[in-house]
Amino acid sequence: MPLDLKQLVTERLGENYDLHERYVNQTLVQVQRTIGFDKIYARAEGAYLYDREGNAYLDFLSGYSVYNIGRNHPVVKKAIQDVLDMDLPNMVQMDCALLSGLLAEALVKKLDNHLNAVFFCNSGTEANEGAIKFARAATGREGMISLANAFHGLSMGSLSMMGCESFREGFGPYLPGCDRVAMGDLQTLEALLSTQKYAALVIETVQGKGVHYPEGDFFQQAQALCRKYGTLLISDEVQTGLGRTGTWFGYQQWGLEPDIITLAKSLSGGYVPCGAIVMRRSIYQGTFSDLKRCVVHSSTFGRNNLAMACGLATLQVIEDEKLVENSAKMGALLMEKLNALKARHSVIKEVRGKGLIIAIEFQEPKEFAPKMGWKLLHKMETELFTQMVVTSLLSRHRVLSQIAGHAVDIVKILPPLIITEKEVDLFVNAFDSVLSLCSKFPGPIWELGGNFMKSSLKKVGSRS
Q1: For a Cys staple, 37 with which of 32, 88, 118, 150, CB 3.0–4.6 Å?
Q2: What are phi and psi of 42, to 5 degrees?
Q3: For residue 96, what are the CA distances in angstroms to 80, 99, 212, 303?
Q4: Which H or E run includes 26?
């Protein structure tokens, strides 16, 4: 009997969290139920998710920047249908397929001339794992340097460069020769590079965890030091690439010339996983150095036709709809309107971002009553106040956002690059409303914070 997927989904929609609790990640289900994120989404389009009742939710998370072009874009959908209709040969492996060549060509055309060789894979962490191998082979060196607070993925090589300790706990030992420096610390960076033990310095030009970036010329000076000591510069563009920062790639914000960049997330169009490593041809050939080594690094599904079609369609959409320009324009508007809220809400410490990767960082409010609530929550867990805000945005205004990292007072937004002034105003008004309620202590918002605190106490009790 053939699978009737539409009927299956229709009949079983609503069992989502029960199924995951039984067969997948029970702890994640518990967290989502605790913070009120256990919604049942039935449909998605553009910048919105829709529940079974047809209520629209503004998606300012974008699947962690997967949906730069919005959800279920018809151009990407048609590209997938076209590939399926053509019955093309796929993953023959001992061939050179057309679509992967076409996507490589299209990517190189969006980049600077020195980045002209492409390796396809499936995800951001796989791209960064591959970049480690390419850098080691090209330089003959073992070490890697990353920045404090960095996030480069969760497989072992990527985790070795991780700057967020909460993700590393329990998984060591890590790759030898991996060190981290604080953003801006050129003295320590040069001391490490001068040993000539390091294959590459790996950076996120805008760090995903917390949305941090240097204000001065740290990146330019770091690149100069890499050139001085023969170390490669790798720009992790998994989240910042393809228009997210208001330029095609994040490194262009600082006028850098990286030797390798890594891509994934939005290259997929949100349909089929697609990742890429783009580098100088000389670095590429350092790995595939002779005929016997022509497949010494490979990825079974990396060049599959569906992923390549998605990548081609996504690049075309970004170009045709001028989404890079829209990211810069809407990002500037969001920053302006969010900064204007600082006069009304002393709890806002800073608004920062590039394009449409934006963070709103909180501080202890000046007013007596909300200050007491702030202190109470922070005695338990740092992020409880921010979680209270994020949950209230979803429950009261149907706006999806996130906390920017572990133990931080930062809300992070990653809107799709297709948003208009309508979505900007929806978010800013919702944010203003939630913070206004936060100024009333005690009150319904703070009751939510109290529930989170009770949940935290239960977790502490269960571990003791």
Answers
A1: 32
A2: -105, -20
A3: 20, 9, 40, 9
A4: helix 26-34
**CA distances (Å), origin 290, targets 114, 284, 371:** 22, 12, 66
Tell me the whole-structure pTM to 2 decimals: 0.94
Nearest CA among 253, 251, 255, 296 for reference residue 278: 251
Q: Which residues is 56 bridged to in the sheet?
A: 50
Please tell me whether the peptide bond between 415 and the residue prior to it is cis, using omega within 30 degrees of 0. Answer: no
Place of tokens 């934006």: 358
Assign 119 to helix, strand or coil.
strand
Residue ranges in the chain whose pLDDT is less than 50: 460-464
Q: What is the DSSP string of 371-401?
A: HHHHHHHHHH-TTHHHHHHHHHHHHHH-EE-
Kind of pairing between the strands at 357-362 and 48-51: unpaired
Strand ranges in 83-230 using DSSP code E only, listed in sequence order:
117-121, 143-147, 178-181, 198-203
Partner residues linked to 46 by β-bridges: 71
Buried/exposed code over 36-65 (b: 16+ C-beta within 10 A; e: otherwise):
beebebbebebbbbeeeeeeebbbbbbbeb
pLDDT tens, residue by residue, 245-301: 999 999 999 999 999 999 999 999 999 999 999 999 999 999 999 999 999 999 999
Selected from 3.40.50.12500, 3.40.630.30, 3.40.640.10, 1.10.443.10, the CATH number assigned to the domain covering 74-320 reads 3.40.640.10
Distance of alpha carbon 211 from alpha carbon 273, whole angstroms: 24
pLDDT tens digit string along 189-206?
A: 999 999 999 999 999 999
The span from the CA of 346 to the CA of 365, in Å, is 5
For the record, the structure tokens of 3 come out as: 């699978």
* Of 296, 321, 322, 327, residue with least CA distance to 423: 327
The domain locations on the chain are 14-69+323-463, 74-320
pLDDT digit string, tens, across residues 50-89: 999 999 999 999 999 999 999 999 999 999 999 999 999 9
Report yes or no: 286 and 280 within 8 Å, Cβ to Cβ. no
14-69+323-463 is a CATH 1.10.238.10 domain: no
Do 411 and 401 touch, CB atoms closer than 8 A? yes
Task: Give the span between the Cα atoms of 99 and 442, in whole angstroms.
Answer: 59
Pairing of strands 48-51, 56-59: antiparallel
